User: Fold these one by one.
Assistant:
Number 1:
Amino acid sequence: MKDIARRAGVSESAVSFALNGRPGVSETTRARVRGVAEQLGWRPSTAARALSGEGAATVGLVLARPAHSLGVDSFFLQLVSGIQEVLAERHLGLLFQMAEDVADECAVYRRWWAEHRVDGLLMVDPRADDPRPDLLDELGLPAVVIGGAPDERHPGLSTVWADDAAAMASVVDELTGLGHRRIVHIAGLPGLAHTQRRIRTLRAEADRRGLSEVHSVTTDYSDAEGAAVTRRVLRASPPPTALIYDNDVMAVAGVAAAAELGRSVPADVSVVSWEDSALCRMVKPWLSALSRDSTEFGRTAARELTSLLDGGAARAVRVPVPRLTVRGSTGAAVSRTGGGETAGPG
Amino acid sequence: MKDIARRAGVSESAVSFALNGRPGVSETTRARVRGVAEQLGWRPSTAARALSGEGAATVGLVLARPAHSLGVDSFFLQLVSGIQEVLAERHLGLLFQMAEDVADECAVYRRWWAEHRVDGLLMVDPRADDPRPDLLDELGLPAVVIGGAPDERHPGLSTVWADDAAAMASVVDELTGLGHRRIVHIAGLPGLAHTQRRIRTLRAEADRRGLSEVHSVTTDYSDAEGAAVTRRVLRASPPPTALIYDNDVMAVAGVAAAAELGRSVPADVSVVSWEDSALCRMVKPWLSALSRDSTEFGRTAARELTSLLDGGAARAVRVPVPRLTVRGSTGAAVSRTGGGETAGPG
DNA sequence: GCAGATCACTAATCCGCTTTAGGGTGTTCA
DNA sequence: TGAACACCCTAAAGCGGATTAGTGATCTGC
């Protein structure tokens, strides 16, 4: 900046005014300074800016999943891609970190806060009884909760959420319309807030329709557990005629497990995946799946955060309800009593 | 820091000395200051530290893949997970950004450099004729190239690489051992350095063995292109008896495409996936695949970068050669002349 | 018993930028 | 013609640490 000042023949303060659009310099001087700065390829040091009270120009994102449970995943990168799109426009950096668990994640939040490393945070995978919102309140960091339900106890936090309840209802609608009355929901991690929302909604929908043989089983999202749980529930007597999987990985693994037991999809059992991706089109039959635009989800979250950083009020934004794309894995329910014989391919 | 100084009854300089292990304070004072700092949960502001010449305590990573081509992926998150493990130990932050293409990525490098945002960079997806190493040289940023071949033209850059040539040779060994003589390699993006290395090696191995019906086809790594190319090459006369896919997604899509054409795996055609993941165990038969430890790959890369940041010399580190895990998708070659009739399941 | 060295600590400067408080100059109006 | 007021610009302080140059006080050696 000294360089610019010297070459433009003005003081450093004038340079600062000129480059930041502040009043106090003539338009001609401003243009000259801008020219010199551009020519020198100058960019303000974020450290210096941060130190003089402008904030770190960075937002943080922590992913608390143990490394080994990081499997095939499409959602997260799509989400981050959308986030980046919005952040890049404003030249905001994204500080990314992985953590072992939520406690670890909280420690990261505290450290980042103490080090003035971030101006705001994006929080993913909200849980039932989550300590993070309280912490964020305490630290006073602007933050957006991604995928949580609106939470009136934390008026300072913005929330971007999809209406799982409505989506679950639409799936149940579709399945009962096809005649299914015995449905098992192979859910994800029990601790996650959206897992619990889905389980609650399923129960409510079942009660409303008088279906007694509908329940949820929680898992760790892995293909292994997806397959194991599928085998277990399909061996019940009578077995369910429809399975709802909380992610695509388990759904695909479940179809394979069903095939091993001699059950064909959708003749013997219908399958719905709560997450659409290329995976759903890699098995036969293609999986009926709930689709959402994860990239747009990310964009929305990032926009909410920038709005918060600009001093906007916190709010809850709902993204479109995931829509069920019906493909080949859902069909009419057949009544069957028990057994193991195989039907032919549908 | 003023607070600490006041509460400990010493000057701010003394606090700085005490907390940074510099001589100039007594051990008792040092302990007292440390106690106060800990009690206050104090952490130095990265901005201030950076401004006084300590560096930004941050390394950067840019992923230049268009958002839409971000599909199901296991490699990248595993890699980042390993990187984080090492960086977290040293309290180094990871600044992450997505870019549209390499030119965009270069712009990000320049900006980060000008803004003093990062102390070093991790560069992924090296390409043939890549402008990034030159740029990194020019900017003088410590950097590690992940997945490139050692490059003597850029002595300042460290490289962490897997020996694709050896891995490809092992695959060709396995396949020719099974009697395959017509092999098609369904490769990834033509611009990537490792794609070209694999293609070159395959050609060399084929020449060495006198196999004339061996070639590579490049794709965009997507399931769609994987399937399309599979259909095309299997319709050739005579068709290949073995297919090598450059990633798991295409391999799985390819198996499905083969099935549509009435070719069964491995009876009619053997399949090898160059990337192992849960995906490879979601299809029947399970896919023979080249496995590597992506997390360890990330750890190694991060360690090289920290070593560079500590003033260590740049070097090329080779990680273990990906090992072929033989599963059900590879079998003995059958000679067939043309046609479309189907063999039964193997 | 006194110079010189050592030790424990403080004062002052700097990093690069923003911002507040002035300081000239020129114009306007009484 | 002088006061009031814009207008452009400069000087200086401050952000939170690290660092360098001191400053007393205690210790060492002769």
Note: Chain A has three domains: 2-43, 56-162+294-321, 164-287.
Number 2:
Amino acid sequence: MNTNNSLLGFALLGLLHQHPMSGYDLRKIFASSAMGSFSDSPGAIYPALARLEVQGLIRGKVENSASLRKRRLFKLAPKGVTAFRAWVKRPVRRDDVIRRLGELMLRFAFTDQSLGDRQAALFLKQFEAELAGYIPSLKQYLDTNVSKMPLSGRLALECGIQEYEARLKWARTSLAFYDRRKRNKL
Amino acid sequence: MNTNNSLLGFALLGLLHQHPMSGYDLRKIFASSAMGSFSDSPGAIYPALARLEVQGLIRGKVENSASLRKRRLFKLAPKGVTAFRAWVKRPVRRDDVIRRLGELMLRFAFTDQSLGDRQAALFLKQFEAELAGYIPSLKQYLDTNVSKMPLSGRLALECGIQEYEARLKWARTSLAFYDRRKRNKL
DNA sequence: GTTGCCATGTAAACTGTTACATGATTTC
DNA sequence: GAAATCATGTAACAGTTTACATGGCAAC
């Protein structure tokens, strides 16, 4: 059985990891934004839930307290917990930093809830290292190409670089948070 | 005839707007990264080019200088120029800022090449206004929810906010560039 | 003469979008 | 009893990914 999932699938697993919910609850979370750029359309969420159920990662049960509307409450199956943790734990690759920043941030958002502070700190260290390696190559690309680029192209590229720099700074201050918390616990 | 296009389609139009190229050239540009997060897979690019051609936005001609390999060189048709400019010119909406930042930056990167400095400056003003309106609502969401969130969740959200703030700052300094250039020209 | 890159494309599977459909239950 | 909202889903379509297929040319 294939246990590959789209990003939406993992987002659903992550939310269900917190506590069981219905498809409608999940839609509301996506609709009220602030949480990534996921669609709240039923045509995305219900099929995704169905796939997760077929894979045995979640299970849905119809709640039927007499007076309530029909509502399927989904919760993580043990297999789902394993798959979710494995996803969160994946090493941070250069490729992720370049093409899947959104996925990385989603994984991080779910990290200490599912795997604890140590894994969160580890993630940040890897993330920092990859960023620190990648940023200079972007800068070099900019330097060698400025002359050939229109102003807006140059500015757009600089915007990308500044974004990565902001994230590097963020990773460092965040790491400091975890270090402080660790020291307080000792 | 429908003139709707995916983001990849517009990226292709933008590159072909600079100068005619083959599908393979386009793939190499995407592969050598630095340019957005587009896939360089032939299964994405060749069908996209075919769609653009069917819509009459581009035209492909086989180059056949005797000793060369078969190579289809694509160039923009007049209709393609119009469609591309209309895309670049679209107003910047709140929704774009939330869910389609990548598309916005791509549009901006192509702006002054296709529509000139004035449109680029206009874009930046709209972008700045939308960001300035959106950021406070994110901050408020953070403030009201900090207590219920795990540390990593909070940090991830803060990372998002910092990203938007970096872009706001970028928009303002970029606008200053266009203002300066305008003054120099007068 | 075989390895590897140039250059094109196709096919199947999957995911997400848009739009529609349905029915129950509050609320006014 | 009409309107809004809760709650679930389906169908048609478009686009992407992954993997495969093909053939010419260049280098060794």
Note: Residues 4, 6, 8, 39, 41, 43-44, 47-48, 51, 67-70 of chain A lie near DNA strand C (CB under 10 Å from a C1').
